[in-house]
Each structure stands twice: as C-alpha cells, then as structure tokens.
Design goal:
The protein has 275 residues and is mainly α. The chain has 16 helices and no strands. α4 crosses α11, α8 runs antiparallel to α9 and α9 packs antiparallel against α10.
C-alpha cells in the first residue's frame, strides 16, 4: 500500500500543503483581487452550479447538504476528538501561523489511512500537472478520483471538496469552484484556505462586491493583531458550537456514523498517529 497506519506527520503536511498553493497564495493577494469590478449578480447561477455538482458527486453529498445547516451535522466519537484537537490548533493561530501546517495535516487525514491514501493519489496527479502535456489528462483523472472520494465519504469531509474546488479554479470553472467552497465553509467556516480561494474565484469573475466581502472574512495577518484575535475567537466559537450540537444528537446516531466513517479496522486505535 501507498501509506500505512503510521504515516509520518511531516509527510502528511508536505503532501497536504503543496496542492493548495493556489488557494493559500490569496493570503497575500486578496486585497488586490478585491479591487476587481463587477455587479456581483451570481447567486442564481452559483446555486444552479451547486445543484449540478451535488448530483454529479453523489446523492450522499446532496442529501447531507440539504439536511444540514451551517456546521450542523453528526460527528462520530473519533471525529469529535479530532474536532477538539482542531479547536486547540485554531486557538494557537492567535499567536502565529505555525499551527496552520498542523491544521492542513489534520484536515487531510480526517477519514484515516484509507481516505488519506486516496487523497494522496490525487495529490500525485496535481504534482504531475507541472508537465504541460499531462495537464488535461491528469485534471480529468484527479476530478474523477476526487468525485469518487466525496461520493464515498460525503461533503462533510471538507478537504477533498476543497481540492476539487481548487481543481475547478485551475480549470477556469469559477462558479463551480465557488459552489464547492460554500460546501466546505458550511462544514468548516474557519477553513482559511477555502476562504482565500473563494476570494480568488469572485475576483476572476470580476465581482468586486463578493470578493471584498469574502476577503474581509479571511484569516488576518499577525500584524493586524486585534482582527486576528477576533477571527480566532469566531472560529473557535463556531467549532465548539458544531461540537456541542453533535453531543446533543441521538447516541445511536453516533454508532451509525462511527461505522460509516471507519474505512479500515484501525482508525480509532491510531488517532494519535494521524493527528
């Protein structure tokens, strides 16, 4: 197999970060993109794109999207522990950017070894796109693989959806990318990479209003300490809120979701390795 239950943390970070370079670049560039012109009249077409995407990536994602409000969905006991760790890392962002690497890694492995293996395979295709002759072929392969992952796990695993949004951005499918970004942000409103990515998309569409709106929601730099702390406070509050709602769900739901989210026999026993 490509990975074992003991993937080293630094390897996960390296793979998880590299294919998101296009989105994380927006941390530095979003103020420039926000100056793009446009009337911002994309709501209907983006919603239409979102419905088409939900149909294409599977009924599971579609039903999950329609039945869950922002950040309100069931978490397995393993996922709840991951969410607690995620909250700890979000809190560290008030002191510096170092925790961003750990958050990328955590998001990458939220479905354990089997899910990470599949996602790493799409990563290889992203890396091979540096060769011009392989771009179209690998984009199509990556899209098929990412759709399959999302169909299997649902859009509540945010990182494959974020990667598919990245792919659509690279293909110039900006409305489709925005629709996927919105799915990611329903699950993780604090996903700083996706917040930057949606700014890029609206800027490419010439929508100044929405570009500026989303730019105001991105993670502020450390130089803007007050805004940075306010952002972290909101992110932590939303993360705790989603966790609290999960604890209020039916205990039998937790058993069902645990089985759905365990794609091999060792996820629960290997939480430490994956974090």
């Amino acid at each position: 197999g490509f990975v074992s239950n003991r993937i080293h943390h630094v390897d996960v970070v390296r793979h998880a970060r590299s294919s998101n370079n296009q989105f994380t670049t927006a941390f530095r560039m979003s103020s420039e993109f926000a100056e793009a012109g446009g009337d911002g009249n994309y709501k209907d077409s983006i919603e239409s794109a979102r419905r088409r995407l939900e149909e294409r990536i599977g009924n599971d994602s579609a039903s999950s999207s329609s039945s869950s409000s922002r950040g309100n969905y069931r978490l397995s006991s393993t996922a709840k522990e991951h969410r607690k760790h995620e909250i700890e890392l979000l809190n560290k962002l008030r002191h510096g950017d170092e925790a961003m690497n750990d958050l990328w890694a955590l998001w990458f492995v939220e479905r354990g070894p089997a899910g990470a293996t599949a996602l790493l395979e799409t990563q290889e295709l992203f890396q091979e796109m540096e060769s011009a002759s392989a771009v179209n072929i690998n984009m199509n392969k990556a899209e098929r693989k990412l759709r399959a992952i999302i169909t299997e796990h649902g859009h509540q695993w945010a990182e494959p959806v974020n990667r598919l949004a990245t792919l659509y951005y690279l293909q110039g499918k900006f409305k489709e990318s925005i629709a996927l970004c919105e799915l990611v942000l329903e699950v993780k409103p604090w996903h700083f990479g996706c917040l930057s990515g949606i700014v890029l998309c609206y800027a490419e569409l010439g929508d100044r209003v929405n570009a500026k709106l989303w730019a105001s929601r991105r993670l502020p730099p450390m130089e803007a300490q007050t805004r940075r702390e306010e952002w972290v406070d909101r992110a932590v509050e939303e993360a705790w809120r989603s966790l609290d709602k999960s604890f209020q769900s039916d205990p039998m739901d937790d058993v069902v979701v645990e089985k759905e989210q365990r794609n091999d026999g060792g996820i629960s026993n290997d939480d430490g390795a994956w974090q």
